[in-house]
Amino acid sequence: MKPVFNRLLLKLSGEGLAGEEGFGISPTVIAGVAEQLRDVHQLGVQLSVVIGGGNIIRGMTAASQGMDRANADYMGMLGSVINAMALQDSLEKVGVDTRVLSAVEVNQVAEFYIRRRAIRHLEKGRVVIFGGGTGNPYFTTDTAAALRAAEIHAEVILKATQVDGVYSSDPVEDPDAVRYEKLSFKEAMEKDLQFMDQAAIALCRENNLPIVVFDMGVAGNIHKVALGESVGTTVSE
Prior knowledge:
CATH topology: Carbamate kinase
Helix content: 25-40%
Mean pLDDT: 91
CATH class: Alpha Beta
CATH superfamily: Acetylglutamate kinase-like
Radius of gyration: 17 Å
Distance between the termini: 27 Å
Strand content: 15-25%
CATH architecture: 3-Layer(aba) Sandwich
């Protein structure tokens, strides 16, 4: 089967790399992620990743505990660069050529983000991992994912979560929560569904960028989405 997307962007949370420990990086988990990405890359899809840093530090949480918000956010950006480096290492161990591009200058370990450079890497068949968020405090990595996807002309954003789609409320806390198979951007914003922040959803809406929200814990889901199979919840115009 041929993939239905030529270029896609995957949004990974830092917490998703922590495994059962809840913090840090689980070698087993990140190796499993790398294998899934390799399988998608082998389809010929141009693949990019935006990764968060919540397994190391969450800027908003630190700010709520008294730390200066901007300082906390910059620390979170550096945490995301650490995760990007770890994912690069795992991908290269399974034979996938990878580049880390950071919105924060850390020249010893990553290239500085330049849009045309990122596109060129993708065209050469490399997986591109975006670290450092947007490079600015007060913006989430969800917004960074929407921004980078628009800039590189990705056809879809895959939002990896720990549940199998978007629900009307938190399915862990509410047994009556209803899962949506499809949503419009307008519905997602009006209902204030918390799968992404409002700024990110608005940016996707403005650029007609569909979002597929799916469970990263189920092996093969990214591969299925790339082939056009219905997985999780699709949010579109």
